[in-house]
Amino acid sequence: MEITTGEMDEVYKISEERLKQALDAESKIVQLKTVMHSLEEKISDIGSENQVLRQQTLLNCIISLLLSKECLRKERERVSNYLYSSSETKLLEKVQHELLVTYANRLLEKEHSGCRALLRDNKVEDLSRMYRLYCKIPRGLEPVANVFKQHVTAEGTALVQQAEDACRQVSP
């Protein structure tokens, strides 16, 4: 069986088409890999930006607590230097109320920087500072206690759920 020139040309033509298809496919694969790499970098950047944003908002809460503490200290000093001692209690209560009570819910409830974030990130020193500031205010610890209760409930529920899931995986 002999192959004719026409058949040979047809084989070459088919081979060229398949080679071209293979090269096109390879080119598309390279393009897809480039796009995937670019997307992975963007996702990584977004994750980094999100982490930075959470850290910044947590820092803002901590700074707010520190500024409140410093403002209260300066106000006590000012009262003792310039006012009658009898007015000290009333003035300090008013300052504490403005600094801590008026904005308490906003400060405590912030998702990435409030009391929940301090509990989640185990910021014991900052939680201690928050306690020292709020314990001086009548009923000041109630909002802190509510957030703490919600945190403990959520963490406990998650642990119970993990234990139940582990038991389901072990038992047939």
Automatic annotation (TrEMBL):
The keyword Coiled coil applies. It comes from the Eukaryota. The keyword Coiled coil applies. It holds the Pfam family Cullin. One of its GO terms (molecular function) is ubiquitin protein ligase binding. Keywords: Coiled coil. Residues 68-165 form the Cullin N-terminal domain. Residues 22-56 form a coiled coil. One of its GO terms (biological process) is ubiquitin-dependent protein catabolic process. Belongs to the cullin family. This is Cullin N-terminal domain-containing protein.
